[in-house]
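Hi all, long-time lurker, first post. I run a small reading group and we've been trying to get comfortable going from sequence to structure in the token notation. Rather than ask abstract questions, I figured I'd post a concrete chain and ask someone more experienced to write out its structure so we can walk through it together at our next meeting. Sequence below, copied exactly:
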Amino acid sequence: MPTKLGQKFTDTFTKYMPSAYVFALLLTLLTGILALTFTNSKPIAILEGWYNGFWNLLSFGMQIVLIIITAYCIAQSSPIKKGIDRLAKLIRTPTQVYFIIIALGALLSLVSFGMVVITAILGRELALRIKGIHYPFLVACVYFSFGGWVCGLSSSIALLLNTKNNFLIKSGILSDTISTSFTLGSTLNLLMIGLFVIISPIIIWLLIPKSFDGKELNDLKADSTDEEGSVKDEALSYKLPFKALSDALNNAGWLQVSVALLGQTYIIYHFTTKGFDLNFNIMIFIFLIVGMLLHITPMRYSIAMKRASSNISGILFQYPFYAGIMGIMMASGLGEKISDVLVSIATPNSYAFISYLTGGIINFAIPSAGGEFAVIGPSIINMVQELGANLSPTEVTAMTARASMSVAYGESLSNLLQPFFLLIVFPVMGAGIKIQARDVVGYLFIPFLVLFIIQALMVTYIPL
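-- Answer (accepted) --
Happy to help. Here is the structure in token form:
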């Protein structure tokens, strides 16, 4: 029954769901219409807000891009590739593939959402080696597996709250940073990790399609394009047929490792002097240094960076449109309208669920936890501060962290129906084949419903 129902949803999404870029265009128009309808803003003010919004999140957008690129570089290194090869030899059946992809992907996502690239590489390798794998369903599994990233080390809202001089502090909404002990280290977040790592594979197991006819990777290939060679092989191909100083420097492991060791020294210093202080900048720096150490030579790392950069082309040109939508909401006062509604209906018992629901809904317009929080975060925090007016500062901080993480959980879950971040998966899993978001998202509708119910109960009833 779950399998048949899942296939029905897939058929429906295939028929009606447009591409991620079309989503962005439609939502731009919808947000503009809502701003005109529910605020007193003039059309030219909304248009100006949309234009200005394109450029207001460039630094944050660059951080997102760098997290993805540096994680992708790690995934392409020889040690990681060899690890994938060893793991692939231990897996025999399609059911094992789906189960392991979900569980391993969930664990990797706790390091960074960009690590979904490793899961995608493993998934494609397994699909090439093991018969009977329903490839669109496998792509859905890979995409589903990275939903737990909001609970892990690259959780953008948790890192933002703990970053000095963030926009919330600069604007006076918060007086100080909020430690990750209130967000990532909370009981709620630890149980949420268990949901993604333990329960999610079981949900997927119940939905495995019974038929894979015409859906294996080899069936879907659009051409006979060969798989991309290793970074090491490409690096060797650039060498001149005679000895040259340029080649010696390009392939000088000592040079890159020396610089990487300097970076490693700073990382140790950072955590020694600042404790478990995680933010965007230090996470990107860690990934950068780890990638340098794994690839060893400048040439190999340059090639890995080149490949990684091609992986984020969709994000580069679509992210400004979503930032523009944010600009409309801020310039028109639509964000303040949302704040007023939230404050009017929230109670000490419902504020976390309202935050969760808001995060899920707004994500369809702004599919980025950090970018979304730039719009809705002030409203959420103002709501909490009003509700906690008679509480101690520590209790208000705990409530703020809970509400903020609830936004993150809602945002992450609705990504199952919002195809934007499939742009990270498709360059790996969609290479050489014809596949679109509409072929994948239908398989995620039932998991979305199940997790929505469980997460709503968790954010509402699990004690602080």
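A couple of things your group might point at:
The two ends are 38 Å apart (CA to CA).
The chain has one domain: 2-221+229-461.
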